[in-house]
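Service request form, structural biology core

Requester: graduate student, group of Dr. S.
Request type: structure prediction, single chain
Budget code: on file
Notes: please return the result as structure tokens.

Sequence provided:
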Amino acid sequence: MRVRSICPRLADCAVALPSTARHRDVAWQPGCRRPFGAWPLATPRLILPGKEGALVTNAGGSPARGQDETSARSAGRPAFDTSVAHQARMYDYWLGGKDNFAADRTAAEEALAAYPGMAHLARANRAFLGRLVRYLADDCGIRQFLDIGTGIPTAGNTHEVAQQVAPGCRVVYVDYDPVVLSHARALLTSAAEGATDYIDADLRDTGTILREAARTLDFTKPVAVTMLAILHAIGDEDRPYGIVARIMKAVPSGSYLAISHIAADLERQKLDESRDRVNRISHQQYTHRNHAEVLRFFDGLEMVEPGLVELRRWRPAVESTRTTPGWCGLGRKP
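Core staff response, request fulfilled:
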């Protein structure tokens, strides 16, 4: 299997990835320095395990560039520093995973101390992903998915759910955490009839995402774009509405946008404290948004029933009585 990806510009540090069956060798080429105080210029190499092994590399070794040919915002993409918490690894911890570091666990516990329901919220978001993808593949006939903000693979990944419905589904994953990249092989176990790919990129770098995704997806046919639990990590200063609009402009009529986002107007006091605790020690700085602010991401799209609702209320088999303070919804491009 060939892995196409841009390898993360890992910081030149001495910390290795966890020694698990899916994490193996990480090597840095010599002569690294960090332009803009953020990225090493040398090309890092990450070798993923497998029958023959796979080499993922960034041949250019230059900072990611957006559509306007400017460098991607350096503060938006963390160096590989295990002493600083990262969203994907905190989420992994809440889901009961083991691919996280002490700093991630500390931040995740800080969030739980302020809002004990955070782990339940993470699980509710994961359940939403499953219902959403099955609905898109089964009821809407979607066969192409662009999953931005993939997170560390676990059971029920997008391609697994979609290809259970239609084995020919094609799925492209996007994330920028080195630990997520180290699991890329788990995300590339496609059915023979379909295809999967992984792109290492920041959501803000829409040019890279769209260019790399076009290798696997046909942008003349409908695409389901999913941005689950990622936009609250994009502050207003980075113009998140413009980011979403650029992605959706590139996909044709009949495409879909799915979003989940921590709510600013549900369980507000506890969630605000949880956010503030995490923001003090995490790389990402979180911005919670209210119903109207999340709905704005769907401007120009037709909302699919039941509209923008609390996570537990989007087409559940059995509706829970426990509050899940996150907004989620699905919109169709007319």
